[in-house]
Amino acid sequence: MNIKRTTGEKVFSICNGIIMILMMVIMLYPFYYVIVCSLSNSSELIGQKGIMLWPKGFSLNAYKYVLRNPNVMTGYRTTLFLVTFGTALNVFITSLAAYILSRPKFAIKNLMLSMIIITMFFSGGMIPKFLLIYNTLGLKNNLLALILPGTIVTWNLMIMKTNFQAIPSSLIESAKIDGANDFTILFRIVMPLSLSVISVMILFYGVGHWNSWFDAMLYIRKREVFPLSLILREILVLSNMQDMTGGAGIDDRFAIGKSIQYATIIVATLPILLVYPFIQKYFVKGMMIGAIKG
């Protein structure tokens, strides 16, 4: 049935569309600007100000300098390990904890929930955490220092717990009658029915590992195991580009350095941007399921 819209509704839709387009342009242009600058000739970027819509003197030299840098490739390998192994461990442990806390007959459920929720508002602080990881656990220059402390994020745990609670208890009771234990119920019934929220957890944890740099800066000193975020920080913040501009003349290094910085941003962010569309369709659904009730 066609419902005729009023003039006010039409005006609102038009204004809303215009505002959304403006917001989209405002958010996308900085990223587009970085792409344009990374594809521009280095000498053309010196003194460049204002808006750029097209590359000036198209050149891929900046990407050649970035991709031939061994530190960038090493950072990629380290970051891919953190994302794959770390995210798998995060989702596995979070699923176990969420399943336990979602069971109504779990004896100390309320006590554990209270202790877990407290960590959302209070922490031991950076210095005690540093001493624990660096001295007590001896994880200096160990990638486990970037994975184990954040194995469970409380907010993610609450989302997954709420999703598990939405699964009919009669389904779980039927499985128990058939002789299934808790591990079988979790991995063969609960998790297959929760693919949406699990996809959201993979996105949250994966992006967190990909972008994390502060913990790596604290606990990792060996350049051989630097994640990509630390390499990116050296190039952008510390302007450390000697490994990439060593073959260029002194006068050209400053000009090349600017385009290298832009190219490094693209190289470091493009993989995670390419992954997002494949799980985006689960994102809203998973968040809505995990936010129905606590």
Provide a descriptive summary of the structure in words.
With 294 residues, this protein is mostly helical. It has a single domain, classed as MetI-like (MetI-like fold, Orthogonal Bundle). The protein has 14 helices and no strands. It has helices at residues 7-38, 42-45, 61-67, 70-102, 109-118, 126-136, 154-165, 169-177, 182-190, 195-211, 214-219, 228-236, 242-245, 250-289. The two termini are 38 Å apart. 27% of the residues are buried.
Largest sheet: none
CATH class label: Mainly Alpha
The CATH homologous superfamily is termed MetI-like
Q: Assign the CATH topology.
A: MetI-like fold
* Shape category: globular
Q: Specify the structural class.
A: mainly alpha
Number of strands: 0
Q: Mean pLDDT, as a whole number?
A: 81
Low-confidence stretches: none
Q: Whole-Å distance between the termini?
A: 38 Å
Helix-strand topology string: HHHHHHHHHHHHHH
Helix content: 55-70%
Tell me the number of helical segments per DSSP (H or I, 4 or more residues long): 14
Q: What is the CATH architecture assignment? A: Orthogonal Bundle
Overall number of domains = 1
Using only C-alpha atoms, the radius of gyration works out to 24 Å
Proportion of beta-strand residues: under 5%
